[in-house]
């Protein structure tokens, strides 16, 4: 059943978060007034206006690309479909000077009527934009956040105030913004939550320092570390596919699965935005978070329940069971210029925002192993890259060969043709398909590899929501299962930090590959070492 908020009776929202360490200190010094549990107003509305709650959403960094292209459109989609409470306010906060009208004009250019019910879209946009306001201020100014607090209180109009801050800003100013928001603009009688965008540091040390700094001002359950890939429909469906279908769960182990592949590719390069990327590279940008989080969801044991903590506990167990990653099991690459069809495509270092001598990898492949009883010896192969031959994100599960297969002679020496493969395509054209062997109709015995295909666009008329819609709604409702806990983050960084340091300290030169190709040859040698063929290279691949 949809999680609708209707009328004045807004849905019950999670209880007030605990006082932060800093708040406790300030309370003793008389700097903050925090109501006792007895004095706090219930978030469940009673008769009349008494106890009505409101949600104030502040997009910090509102003038940036992420806010314009993803956050504001996602909030509009939630509003259009009735998922936001009756009383809500959206504030943009950034250093740029801007009026409310100018913010609304900027936001209106990115809103679309891509959602299902297309009636009255123009009117809905107007209603949404009327709830959008702007406040200009510095990210490190408590005074400016105090001014924001006054504006928020005006719009909250005495209701129980719940506040969500979305940090759409560079990581070097996270702490300043969190400090100011916590000290000067926290909710007085409701919850305060902060969404933090990746990157969460560059390695174990910087990530731990960031976590410690955040926890000076916030409790862990106030911090929502967002990885938008966890909000993708097919990633959400991963546990449903496995745990609610009898045919899959018994096969989900080393006994039947030969290897698992997690593949991410983009068909474009940095295109003038290499400044950020060059400081992080493809391993930090994609593998350490997006692909590793999907791997943990894929490989975890059955959780006790669908509760956020139960799911995250199982993910942490997987990450802690993983074998330390060795440099020999990693291949890195960087795309170079290439001319195709009369068009010249620039190399990575041709980007004016990238240093000419940069060794930052734009491609990486790795072989990982989980040392537990379910997955012992099964290679989990990851690869991610920019400027490749296509755009895709998918999970490929290659099953073992059928022992003593009666029809081996029909496949000749290439037994991989007879291997069943489950493909979960996260993007584009979301789909789940299973490759099976089938007899071609006719008098002879000729076998064919066919697909049992669930193509989402063909099966479901409803358009798939953007990942940011799901994650923003979860943050508002206090649902944490798709957000990353601090111990998950520690375990993920401990896996990749040693090999990242080795690559950078030894100044490993990446293998160059042409723009628009399938990536470095070294990735194929890495897979072959574990008797694996990359599944996205087959002629029958969709």
TrEMBL record:
Enzyme class: oxidoreductase
GO molecular function ontology, one term from the record: NADP binding
Glucose-6-phosphate dehydrogenase NAD-binding domain residues: 59-237
Function of the molecule: Catalyzes the rate-limiting step of the oxidative pentose-phosphate pathway, which represents a route for the dissimilation of carbohydrates besides glycolysis. The main function of this enzyme is to provide reducing power (NADPH) and pentose phosphates for fatty acid and nucleic acid synthesis which are involved in membrane synthesis and cell division.
HAMAP family with a match to the protein in the record: G6PD
E.C. code: 1.1.1.49
Record domain Glucose-6-phosphate dehydrogenase C-terminal: where: 240-534
A cellular component term, taken from the record's GO annotations: chloroplast stroma
Catalytic activity, as annotated: D-glucose 6-phosphate + NADP(+) = 6-phospho-D-glucono-1,5-lactone + NADPH + H(+)
Superkingdom: Eukaryota
Pfam families documented for this protein: G6PD_C, G6PD_N
Protein family membership: Belongs to the glucose-6-phosphate dehydrogenase family.
Keywords: Carbohydrate metabolism, Glucose metabolism, NADP, Oxidoreductase
Name recorded for this polypeptide: Glucose-6-phosphate 1-dehydrogenase
PROSITE patterns: G6P_DEHYDROGENASE
InterPro entries, alphabetized: G6P_DH, G6P_DH_AS, G6P_DH_C, G6P_DH_NAD-bd, NAD(P)-bd_dom_sf
Pathway(s) served: Carbohydrate degradation; pentose phosphate pathway; D-ribulose 5-phosphate from D-glucose 6-phosphate (oxidative stage): step 1/3
GO biological process, one term: glucose metabolic process
């Amino acid at each position: 059943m949809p999680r609708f908020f209707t009328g004045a009776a807004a849905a019950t929202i999670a209880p007030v978060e605990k006082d932060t360490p800093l708040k406790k200190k300030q309370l003793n010094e008389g700097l903050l007034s925090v109501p006792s549990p007895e004095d706090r107003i219930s978030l469940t509305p009673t008769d009349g206006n008494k106890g009505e709650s409101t949600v104030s959403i502040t997009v910090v960094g509102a003038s940036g690309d992420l806010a314009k292209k993803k956050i504001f459109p996602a909030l509009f989609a939630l509003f259009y479909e009735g998922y936001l409470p009756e009383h809500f306010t959206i504030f943009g906060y950034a250093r740029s000077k801007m009026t409310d009208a100018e913010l609304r004009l900027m936001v209106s250019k990115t809103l679309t009527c891509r959602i299902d019910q297309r009636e009255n879209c123009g009117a809905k946009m107007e209603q949404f934009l009327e709830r959008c306001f702007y406040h200009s201020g510095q990210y490190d100014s408590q005074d400016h956040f105090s001014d924001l607090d006054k504006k928020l209180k005006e719009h909250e109009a005495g209701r129980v105030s719940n506040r969500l801050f979305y940090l759409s800003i560079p990581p070097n100013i996270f702490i300043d913004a969190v400090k100011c928001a916590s000290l000067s603009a926290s909710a007085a009688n409701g919850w305060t939550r902060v969404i933090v965008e990746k990157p969460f540091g560059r390695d174990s040390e910087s990530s731990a320092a960031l976590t410690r700094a955040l926890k000076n001002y916030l409790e862990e359950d106030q911090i929502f570390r967002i990885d938008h890939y966890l909000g993708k429909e097919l990633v959400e469906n991963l546990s449903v596919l496995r745990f609610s279908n009898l045919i899959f769960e018994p096969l989900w182990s080393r006994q039947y699965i030969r290897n698992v592949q997690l593949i991410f590719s983009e068909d474009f390069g940095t295109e003038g935005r290499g400044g950020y990327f060059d400081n992080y590279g493809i391993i930090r940008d994609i593998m350490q978070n997006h692909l590793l989080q999907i791997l943990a969801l894929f490989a975890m044991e059955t959780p006790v329940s669908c509760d956020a903590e139960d799911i995250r506990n199982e993910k942490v167990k997987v990450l802690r069971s993983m074998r330390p990653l060795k440099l020999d099991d990693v291949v890195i690459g960087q795309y170079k210029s290439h001319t195709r069809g009369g068009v010249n495509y620039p190399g990575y270092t041709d980007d004016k925002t990238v240093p000419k001598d940069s060794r930052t990898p734009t491609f990486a492949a790795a072989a990982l192993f989980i040392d537990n009883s379910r997955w012992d010896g099964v290679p989990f192969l990851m690869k991610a890259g920019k400027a490749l031959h296509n755009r895709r994100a998918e999970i490929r599960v290659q099953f073992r060969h059928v022992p003593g297969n009666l029809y081996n002679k029909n496949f000749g020496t290439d037994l991989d043709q007879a291997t069943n493969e489950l493909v979960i395509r996260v993007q584009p054209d979301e789909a789940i398909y299973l490759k099976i062997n089938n007899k071609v109709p006719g008098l002879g015995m000729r076998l064919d590899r066919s697909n049992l295909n669930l193509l989402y666009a063909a099966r479901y008329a409803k358009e798939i929501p953007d990942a940011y819609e799901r994650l923003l709604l979860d943050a508002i409702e206090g649902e944490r299962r798709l957000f990353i806990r601090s111990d998950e983050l520690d375990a993920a960084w401990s896996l990749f930090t040693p090999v990242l340091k080795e690559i950078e300290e030894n100044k490993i030169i990446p293998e160059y590959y042409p723009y628009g190709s399938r990536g470095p040859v070294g990735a194929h040698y890495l897979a072959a070492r574990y008797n694996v063929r990359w599944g996205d290279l087959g002629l029958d691949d969709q």
